[in-house]
User: Fold this.
Amino acid sequence: MREPEAPQSRPSSPTVGASSAEVDTGPMPLLTRLNERGIRLLMGVDAAFLLLVMLATQVFRQGWNPAGWQTFSPSLYLLSYVATAALFVATYYFGGLYEREPRLAFPPVLPRVVRQSVAATGLYAIANLGLTSLAKELGAQIERALPMPFPNLIALFVLGSIGVATNRKLVHWVRYNREGPTRVVLVGAPDEVNVARKHIDVDADRAVVVASLGSPDELLVTVEETHATEVVLLSSRWFDTLYPRVLDRLEARTVNVLQRVTAKETMFGLERVRQIGGLPFVQLRSHTMQTSRAHFKRFTDLTLLVLSAPVLLVLVGLLAAYELLVVGRPILFWQERVGAEGRRFRMVKFRTMYPNAEEDGAPQLATQDDPRIVPACRWLRSTRLDELPQIYNVLRGDMSLVGPRPERPELTERFEQVIPGYSRRHELPPGITGLAQIHGRYHTDPEYKLGYDLQYLVNWSPTLDFEILARTIWVVLTRRL
Assistant:
C-alpha cells in the first residue's frame, strides 16, 4: 500500500499519458518552443561569457586600443572570436551539456565541461594548423592563419571551462529555488523503503520522500497525486512490468526514473552511477540516445558522405551499369520499411531478385541460398553492395550510415508482438550497416539481433560508427554472412 505524505499545494499538472490535445492550454512561450528544438538560453549565456574571456585576454595582453593589436585587424579578431565561441558552444551541445539532467544527485559539471573544452580547443588548434600550412603553401608569409595566439587559447580553455561550469551551477541553483526540493516516490519492499528513506533523509534539504509503494501497480496514479519529480526503483524485478509503456509515460511527464544499484547490477559494468546520501543509483531512460547526440550522429553522417562522395559516386555508377546488363530495367528496387519513431519510408536498393519474387504478396525473409536471387547478382548481395543506393535515403534523413537495419512493416508488427522492447530499435533512423550486421548472419534470430541493436544505441559514439564501417568493409571483402 502507498503511504500518503503531507500534501503540498502546487499547480495542477497534466494527466500522465494525456495526449497533447488534452493538455493544450494555448500558444507555448517562445523559450518553450526553442527548448523543444534543442535551443537553450544557456547557449547564449555561455557564448557571451566565452566572448568576454577572449576579448579580456586580448586587451590584457595587447592593450585597450584595438588599433595597436598586432598581426590582424580588430574586425578580423572579433569575427574569429565569434566563430570560436560558436565552435565551443557547438562542441558543448554535441557533448550533451545542454540536456536536462535529473535534479536528484546533480552530477559533477566541471569534469564534463573540461572534457568538451579539450575537444573544442583541439579542433581549433587542428584547424589553425591546417589553414596555416595551406596558406604557407600558397605563398602567404604569416605566423598563423587564425588570429588567436596560443596563450589566448590556453586562457580561453581554463577560464572558459570554469565559467561554463559555474553557469550550470547557477542554473541548477535557480531551478532548485524555483521548484523546491526533489519530490521522490520510492518503490520497493518495506525493508528496502526504510533503508532508502534513511539515506535520502540525510539530504532532506535537496530531496523529500512524498510516497512509497510496495509494487509499481499504482505508480502512475501516485506520481500524479503527489506531483513527484523522481521515481526510485529499489529492485530490478519490476523492470519488465514498467518497460516500455510506463517509462514512456513518465518520461513524457518529465519524471525521472532511477534504479538502485546493487552488487548484482555492478556486474553489468554500469557507468555514471550517482548517489544521494550514500544511496547509489543509475538513471533509466525509455529513449536511450539524447537529442544532442542524435544531431551529432546526423552531422557525422553528412560529413562522411561529403568526404567519400567521389569514390561512392563512381562505385554506384559502375554497379548501375552492371545491373543494367545482367538484370535489365528496373535496376532499382523500392520497398516500404519502418524507420525512426515507427515512420514508414521507401527504401531503395539495387534489384537482385527476379521480378514478382513475392507473388503471393506475403513478406519473406531472404535466406543465404534464396532461389529468388538472380545468379549474376549473388555476389552483390554477399558483398552487400546492393545496399549502396540507400545513400539517397541517408541524404533524405530516412536512414543513417550505421544503425539497426530497417524491416518491413509486416515483419516489424510480428516481431513487436513476440519480442519485448523491439520498438526501441526505432529510436534512431535505421542504418545501411550496423552492429548486428557485422556480428550476425542471415540466420541470426531477430531477438539476438535486437540485442546488438540496443547495445549500439546505448554505446553510440562517432568512434563506434567508424569501427562498424571499417569492419563492414572487412565483411564485404570476406563475404561473411
